[in-house]
């Protein structure tokens, strides 16, 4: 938890912030170089999320374990909650896991993270604090054998696109030369996502999931630049929403 008492109307989450692996998993049988790739964590997302928390004065929950150990933005039933293969890389430590081992990872990493998200959102609801949920992610410019992904920013939503589309309109007005789009390069749904369906839609909170192309935020300068762009658009969106409300 970063800036737990932040007073902004936003709560930030970063489910793929780190590449930590519990010692007993022996690096999942992967060479060290693989843990620096996008398959292990969302490159640059933690730096952007921390900068957003500071600039907005918003609380932020970071999940430090590698998405290869368990993906904390997937339901347990998702095929890639504990991936055996990720962007062409076989993950030896995830092959033929027993149901018990899968459930242990879920219980020890996934559930505690989302309990903390729940506690924070419950507390803010009890206090009457307005809350917009923002999930911070990054994506690789190209998957193995796939096409180029030209977008610089994706703004994702599912059933309720109202805040996401309002934010995107504001961002595009403020940054007309930046390639941004709704629901690119991914979609949010109940099968492959957890945070937005459970904590955003489930509570009826305004929400969005941000996907920033990771080559743009691979260093501190890029992370600060993108955080500033997003903060400007978030504040603009809240102001527009207040006027319309």
Strands, helices and their partners?
Blueprint: E1 10-14, H1 45-56, E2 60-62, E3 85-86, E4 89-90, H2 99-127, E5 132-139, E6 153-156, H3 162-174, E7 180-182, H4 195-201, E8 207-213, H5 220-244
Parallel strand pairs: 1-2, 1-5, 5-8, 6-7
Antiparallel strand pairs: 3-4, 6-8
Helix pairs in contact: 1-5, 3-5
**Which fold name fills CATH's third level, the topology?**
Aminopeptidase
Low-confidence stretches: none
How much is the average pLDDT?
96
Just give the CATH class: Alpha Beta
Share of residues in helices:
25-40%
Please report which band the strand proportion falls in: under 5%, 5-15%, 15-25%, 25-35%, 35-45% or over 45%: 5-15%
Radius of gyration: 17 Å
Tally of structural domains: 1
């Amino acid at each position: 938890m970063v800036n737990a008492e932040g007073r902004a109307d936003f709560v930030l989450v970063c489910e793929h912030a780190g590449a930590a692996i519990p010692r007993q998993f022996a690096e999942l049988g992967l060479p060290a170089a693989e843990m620096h790739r996008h398959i292990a964590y969302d490159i640059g997302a933690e730096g952007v999320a921390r900068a957003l928390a500071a600039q907005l004065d918003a609380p932020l929950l970071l999940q430090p374990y590698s998405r290869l150990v368990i993906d904390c933005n997937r339901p347990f039933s998702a095929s890639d909650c504990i991936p055996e293969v990720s962007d062409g890389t076989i993950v030896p430590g995830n092959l033929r896991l027993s149901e018990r081992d899968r459930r242990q990872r879920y219980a020890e990493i996934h559930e505690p993270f989302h309990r903390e998200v729940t506690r924070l959102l419950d507390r803010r609801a009890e206090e009457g604090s307005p809350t917009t949920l923002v999930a911070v992610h990054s994506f690789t410019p190209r998957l193995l054998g796939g096409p180029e992904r030209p977008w610089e920013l994706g703004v994702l939503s599912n059933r309720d696109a109202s805040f996401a589309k309002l934010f995107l309109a504001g961002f595009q007005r403020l940054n007309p030369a930046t390639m941004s789009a709704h629901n690119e390069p991914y979609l949010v749904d109940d099968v492959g996502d957890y945070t937005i369906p459970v904590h955003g839609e489930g509570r009826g909170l305004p929400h969005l999931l941000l996907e920033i192309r990771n080559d743009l935020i691979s260093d501190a300068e890029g992370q600060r630049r993108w955080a500033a762009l997003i903060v400007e658009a978030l504040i603009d969106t809240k102001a527009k929403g207040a006027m319309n409300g």
